[in-house]
Amino acid sequence: MIVRISGENQYRLDDGERERLNELERAVIVRVDAGDEQGFGGAYQALLEFVRANGSPIGEDEIETSDVILPPSDLTLEEAGREFTGEGLIPD
Amino acid sequence: MAGLGGRMSTVVKAKVSKLLDRAEDPAETLDYSYQKQVEQLQNVKKGIADVVTAKKRLQMQETSLQQNVVKRQALSSGQEDLARTALERKNVAQTELQSLDTQVAELEDQQQKLTDSEQKLRAKIEAFRTKKEVIKAQYSAAEAQVRISEAATGVGEQMADVGLAMQRAVDKTENMRARADAVQELEAAGTFEDVGSLGSGEDDIDRQLKQLSSQPAVDDELAKMKGELGAGTGSPPTPAPQIASGEGGASGGQPAEGAGS
Q1: Is the pLDDT of residue B22 over 80?
Q2: Is the ipTM of this complex over 0.90?
Q3: Do B3 and A70 touch (CB under 8 A)?
Q4: pTM of the prediction?
């Protein structure tokens, strides 16, 4: 699947990574629900870092539509409250 | 892909369809929108540059403030509450400046990312142009239409993302400008004293200090006048020249020589 980190790049991830991605996202949601600012920062960066480390960047001349668009890395807890709702960003 | 929640994706998708829905020629639309974005990016960069300048200016003023506080402490020895107020103001301004500094650094970093994204977008538009020709050659007209539209959506997504990132940068810039203004207001209230400023550079603390130091002078003067009156002569005392004599002295013809200050 194709994941975009807004403001950065698009990455191609193995479909097998979906589960791990979901786990990382749940960790973010828990922090958002708890209003845990510090925990949120760490959890969100971990999610982005996973995408960067395990995905291969889409080439500049490749044209792909993303399956998931993750908000930018400087997302605040308050903004996250509006982003990560219900089932989250990453479809099961 | 069902169940894709999240505002981000929704916003991006909405932007893409708004961009391309009415487009007869997606390539033309993408080119046009790209040009507009490049112009916008110039404005974003200018906004960031302004904030960076404001921050630098405030930092310079902060340095003079540091010296000022030392001066004030000396001046107001025995006037603890005044020294305290001066210090408190300095601390507020300093904390604000430090956080402003961090945020400006982040903004500059984002500016670089924006430039990169814009270049990526340019490359994708080029790729789209090539791809379009290939598709046209390979597929029937109807099939080609669908595929070209898909590719345009992909490019549109990149474009929408750059647009959102720019909007974000603009919002941040506005926010920082407001905060820089707030620090500036502290300055106007006298937190800083710009050494080279044309104004008096006085603030309420200065005025209070001056008042305190001028009080004995007033008393002295009163005592002097009383003494002169007591000496008995009726002639009024000649006051010291009120206008500071200019260096050239080319203005008035009156020599008004006498007590030089």
Answers
A1: no
A2: no
A3: no
A4: 0.68
